[in-house]
Amino acid sequence: MNEESEYKGLVFNGFAMLAVVLIMIPALIVLTIKLLLENDMVDLGAAIVTALILIDVIMLVGFFSQQPNQARVMIFFGKYRGSFRNTGFYWVNPFMNRKKLSLRLRNMDIEPIKVNDKIGNPVLIGMVLVWKIKDTYKTVFDVDCPTPVAGAQTNTSKNALDAFVRIQSDAALREVTGQFAYDETDSNVSGETTLRSGGAEINELLENKINERLAMAGIEVVEARLNYLAYAPEIAAVMLRRQQAAAIISAREKIVEGAVSMVKMALEQLKDENVVELDEERKAAMVSNLLVVLCADEPAQPVLNTGSLYQ
User: Fold this and answer.
1) What does the pLDDT look like over 78-128, one tens digit per residue?
2) Does residue 7 contact residue 82 with C-beta atoms inside 8 Å?
3) CB within 10 Å: which end of the chain, N or C, has fewer?
4) β-strands 96-102, 219-231: how paired?
5) Is pTM beyond 0.85 here?
6) In the prediction, which pLDDT does 225 show?
7) 144 and 167 in contact (C-beta within 8 Å)?
8) How far is CA 249 from the centre of its chain?
9) What Rg do the C-alpha atoms of the chain give, in angstroms?
10) What whole-number distance in Å separates Cα of residue 70 and Cα of residue 87?
């Protein structure tokens, strides 16, 4: 058996069994007094009372309570007997080992790590992961946990499981990051998905990759999404200047496009309304002046020409 199954062993109502244990206590007291009064049965009575007290104490070990979204993996002398998921107060065989697991959602913040993107740029990327235990058998028996110290079994197992999830999530994050460029560049295919623009697509791929890795441990990923993305410090300044240059070029293209349109409109309007007749050289001079005025970063200084264009 290598998968989870339901526990089908005997499980009794905890309150009913508690009543049985409580009834045994006064019965033991009465039996003890009776046997002590009979001198010829003192030795036999002492042995019977000792055995009954031992049984009563052992029975107390079998009580447990279970809340919603919790489960217990039942192990009887090393053999897996099933997983118990019912909620309430119960009593089970005291010799049954019951490993308690939480099936509730867990949130993990993966600290930003340095990874090379598709084109080799080092980037810092982090994510938030929401996960839960789905298969209790795989979680308990397929993930190796350090031998816990006395009284710290739950915390030790939890830390080992968290470490396993964190390492596998880190590996999946590196794999996904290496498939995409941080941002659009001249070497990228037009419209190609990037880490900055991918959004839902990147998160969905990341969730699938982590699910593939954690399925071996019986863990299901509910959500995985990037929460931090930036260039590594050693290239951040260079990339910032590159982005600024790209923004300036884009802005200049829009300015030139608008200026040419305005010059064309001005020449056509002058011609249609017969404001002035311009030969080709005067048109060229006018176009040059208008483009200087419209494309300049600072206000142009007008120059008054008192002569002719050819002087």
Assistant:
1) 899 999 999 999 999 999 999 999 999 999 998 999 998 888 888 899 999
2) yes
3) C
4) unpaired
5) no
6) 92
7) no
8) 38
9) 39
10) 8
Q: Tokens representing 165?
A: 């999830």
- Superfamily in which the 106-231 domain is placed by CATH: Band 7 domain (3.30.479.30)
Distance CA(162)–CA(169), nearest Å, equals 10
> Would you put residue 91 in left (φ > 0), alpha (ψ -120 to 50) or beta?
beta
Q: Where are the alpha helices (DSSP H) in the chain?
A: 14-37, 42-60, 136-141, 153-177, 195-198, 200-214, 233-272, 280-295
Single-letter amino acid code for the residue at 94: P
Q: Kind of pairing, strands 70-76 and 79-84?
A: antiparallel
CA 307 to centroid of chain Cα atoms:
75
Between CA 48 and CA 232 the distance in angstroms is 76
Tell me the residue length of the chain: 311
Per-residue CA distances from 41 to 26, 33, 47 (Å): 20, 12, 10
Q: pLDDT tens, 155-179?
A: 556 678 899 999 999 999 999 999 9
What contacts 24+ positions apart, CB below 8 Å, involve 154-160?
154/100, 157/99
Tokens of 37: 């009064």
